[in-house]
Model the fold of this input.
Amino acid sequence: MGKAESENGAKVPRTFTDVLYLTNKDHMPSEVRRLLKQKKLSFATLGVDQYPLIRDQADLIGTVVIDAEDLDTLQQQKLAGIIESLEMRSVGVTLLTGRVELPVKSFSLAPTQSSFSAAKKVESISIDDLWVRISVNLAYRRRSSGIAAKPAAPSNQVRNTSKNQLAKQLQMAGTLVENLAEQLRLAGLVQRDFLPAQLPRCSEARWAAVFLPAEWVSGDIYDVVRLDEQHVGFYIADAVGHGMPAALLTIFVKQALVMRETRENNYRIFSPAEAMRNLNIRMCDQKLSGYQFATCCYCLLNTKTLQLTFARAGHPYPILIKPGEQPVHIEVRGSLLGVFQQAEYVQHTVQLERGDKLMLYSDGADSLIGNFDDQTGFSLTDDFCEIKDLPITEMMERLNGLAQNRKVDPAQIDDITMVGLEVL
Done:
């Protein structure tokens, strides 16, 4: 493979590049550069803000290392989208967050007591461990994209393997696949047990939800909970990634996102900003392996005053739909969950009125709802505009039908979760 290194400035890779280093600095650490050269890997450096330049060229990237040290708040918020888009294209990511000055140089997924860190979640790793992560990601990438060496010619012994032996091996493999499929199906049923069996009912508001996993299990989870006589909390969380690791993280999020605290005969409802901050701390303290991060949007509705307060963590903005008006995003900033332990989350309050609707959705539903363009901003799809004025229950049913009937490349299928609220 030809070299793609760029130490004097960012260059978009034009040939297959083993390692892409995303950073807001003008160079990668010398020990990382030395490692990649020793291993004879092609590599390039690109600014985090310049990632959109190569978003559609993921087939030219083997694995990505993201240096998140000193990223500003806006760049931190972009991490979720970057990691998600790479994951969807089977490109493994190693996220580094900060260097701790110690005699031994190494790298880590968390600023602990030793060295260079990535997500405040595991002990620091040596440069050799970093190489293990890179090599595993490259091996997975080459296997998933068909980039592999041609196997050696089979030996006479292999060529002479009897048909009965092959048939037996195939039968054993088939049984293994069936068992695995059954285990995944059961895991999906267990995950659904963590979803609300019934949505709250009140005279002031109505909720509706859509939950469509891309596989047996989902990297999304949602909940709608009555907290007392006049407060209902509801959220969607989306674990970055897919499959069983993401699904397991959703169960942790469900247990760790605390909306209300009870002490003796008194209770206190956490504000959305508090709930997000506490969840982020729990995820960071858990020291999850790999790059297990999540996005979330949590809303708290006062059913008497119809005031809605919400906070978000790297999640798509909620959509507010007022009768006779164009739907709008209601925006508030918030960093990805499980990356920066000291991250702060802010909240915003809007006054709802009769007939208003609010939609939360995971990024798998983006193509159903709207698209973002750098020049024109966010624009809704024609299908969404046609149904936006329907009652929330009917509206969600129509979105469910659109999601299940659309034609999508299997490699691009993502979990879809939507939660809708309508003020009656």
Observations:
- The domain at 17-145 is CATH 3.40.50 (Rossmann fold).
